[in-house]
Amino acid sequence: MNFIQAILMGIVQGLSEFLPVSSSAHLVFTSNFYKIFANVPIHDQSSQEIFFDIMVHLGTLIAVIFFFREDIIRITKALFKAIISRDFSDKEAKLGLFIIVGTIITIFIAYPINEFAEFIVYKPELAGLFLIITAFVLFYSERKSKNFTAKKTDVDFKTSVVIGIAQGLAALPGFSRSGWTIAAGLFGGLDRVTAARYSFLLSIPIILGASMVYPLVKIDINEAMTYNWHAIIVGTIVSCVVGYLCIKYFMKFLAKFSLNIFAYYCLIMGVFAVIFFSIF
After folding, report:
1. Burial (CB count <10 Å: 0-12, 13-18, 19+), residue 205
2. Contact present, 180 and 206 (Cβ < 8 Å)
3. What CA–CA distance (Å, rounded) separates 130 from 156?
């Protein structure tokens, strides 16, 4: 791990975590492109690389928390008030409850496929294939969304479950977390901005949990002392700054435009990855 690689992957994570293009797939592509040009075997992945992936995800987590800080405070207060009073009629309290429901569903879906998700890290052509599937999910969600003449601006229980399932499946590199969750929201009749807001808020517990659990369970302290921490910290900061700017402008984009441009990108990038990594 060096500074150039860390900055590059920080930029990639910051852009692709919130855009519907699969950050995990792009980290897999970027890492393996680097290995090919550096003449390093693709299957050689150190624990430092895995830990770095966790850290740049933590960077984007900080970005989403900072961007939605007022929403998070408001939802948290409303949820605690509702728990105490046992009255969940408040809209923000319901949203907090649905985030919990979506997170629980995500864990039940993502945990059994975790080993397969780690296997895909060594199979970038498979991540490319999954990215192609994401493209068609985005295309279809936009088409389906047109059937709803009046778009919903509030998440309901059924939609939160469907979005939770979508986020769980997105544990697989190539299945974009933001893409699949926003698409699931569109399937449920939500407008794009509401679907994106819920998608980003729903990402917080999962990314927070992953960034805490993985280092505690799988990282050896003595081995961690040998990591290039300067590069890791720089990459994390870069992912945070780029991620914040990405959220800011992506939300404005969604208010006016469809997801089709990202669907075309996923299709092109997926086809390229399948062909390129199948050859090399």
Report:
1. middle
2. no
3. 28
- Are 141 and 162 contacting, i.e. CB atoms less than 8 angstroms apart? no
pTM of the model: 0.89
DSSP three-state, residue 67: helix
* Main-chain phi, psi angles of 152, to 5 degrees: -85, 145
Helical (H) or strand (E) element with 21: none
Closest by alpha carbon to 170, among 202, 194, 139, 147?
202
In order of 75, 113, 157, 273, the CA distances from 127 in angstroms are: 35, 14, 31, 8
Which amino acid is located at 30 in the chain? T
- One digit per residue, the tens of pLDDT, for the chain of length 280 reads 678 888 988 998 899 888 999 988 988 888 788 777 766 665 555 677 778 888 898 999 999 999 999 999 999 999 999 999 988 889 999 999 999 999 999 999 998 998 898 888 888 999 999 999 999 999 999 999 988 876 888 899 999 999 999 999 999 999 999 999 999 999 999 999 999 999 999 999 988 887 777 666 666 677 777 788 899 999 999 999 999 999 999 999 998 999 999 999 999 999 999 999 888 7
Q: Do 30 and 235 contact (CB within 8 A), yes or no? A: no
Alpha carbons 238 and 261: distance in angstroms, whole number? 25
* Buried b or exposed e, range 162-190, using 16+ CB within 10 angstroms: bbbbbbbbbbbbbbbbbbbbbbbbbbbbb
Residues 6+ apart with CB under 8 A from 92: 74, 75, 77, 78, 79
- Residue 228 burial (C-beta neighbours within 10 Å; 0-12, 13-18, 19+): middle
